[in-house]
Amino acid sequence: MTEPALAYEVEEIGAESVGTGNESFIPLSDPDITVAEIAAVDAVLRSPRLSTGPVAEAFETAFAGYLGRKYAIAVPNGTIGLLLALKACRIGAGDEVIASAYSFRETAHAISLAGARPVFADIDYWSGVLAPQKVEERISPRTRAIVAGNNNGHPAVWSELRDIASRHKLVLLEDSTEAIGSRYKGELVGTFGDAAIFDFSQPSLLTCGEGGMVVTDDIDLAVTLRRHRSHRLDERSSVVVSSAAPYQAGISDLAAALGLAQLERIEEIIERRRLTENLYATHVQSFEGIKPPYIAPDVTEVNWLLYVVHLGTRFSRSSRDAIAEDLRVEQVEATAYCHPLHLQRHYFDLGYRRGDLLVTEKIADRAVALPFHSHLTDAQIEFIVETMKDASINVGAGAAIY
Fold first, then answer.
1. What is the pTM (predicted TM-score) of this model?
2. Regarding beta strands 96-100 and 117-121, do their DSSP bridges make them parallel or antiparallel, or are they unpaired?
3. Per-residue DSSP letters for 122-152?
């Protein structure tokens, strides 16, 4: 039988070659896929195992090595990863976990899924990450953990957060679902928490469709995470009763093969995205009334999840939405970066109201996420920025930056 032909002659697969039904459409994200990823997935498809197996284990080993951490546990996504980490730390009903309400990914939902109460603290106006002093103000006798995120790729203030966690004997969990490859004081994100959680779905720069990873240096925590995640293969084929009821939350070898191939190319992917960032920086210089991307003094490197533009204070939430809609009319996929968690229905039912987190609300009301990936051309980025400028004139000309 003739083997099915694969497009190995194609150097990259992007929106322009896959076909979206609209060749002028500019997507929010577009994975950086080459023949290396195609070959890796094809090899698994030709193997006798597609479910969690040797390739998933190889991905775990490689990812732990990339970060310099001892253990990595592959999971379906960041939310499940955080849920398993909370379970492994015995955090649940009656406990409180301090977190940020400002995030693109809603990983913090895992706190509620674990049965604990999320306690939201406000953020720093410039970086968008948890403000350490606000975190300390939220600590109560029921507080068990702090979940701090590296929002949109910008690392949190890890030195101060570690000090707070140590003084109050709290677990420090690192939400790195938006920030693979960023560095704080020279160290990669994912190396600061007692455990750190990653997510590999779009628009992450390392994309394997769906998937995530929890990393830690604590062997007891790693063993417990694995026990909560899934049965071992030998347990599945016997009548052995395991010591926990697992979530069966691994990832397939197909996803792991894609992730492993992307991990081997991660520096190349980061560099290609940095070229896109530089093009944006060139074109937004003439865009008055916005707050450009900010990088804190202790942050060595930021790899943005998306290109987020912060509109000036004269813009309202409705004008932000109008600008995003104008971009979509012009076939540019754009969205609000954040709908704060404390204003969503589930958390509203817990007693949170608008006005509880003033900085979070002020920033979230004016943040627009623009397409950000390695397939964008200079002409496309110029068009995106010019379209946004034209739209902003209609709703808030001359807006103040701060």
1. 0.90
2. parallel
3. -B-TTT-SBPHHHHHHH--TTEEEEEEE-GG
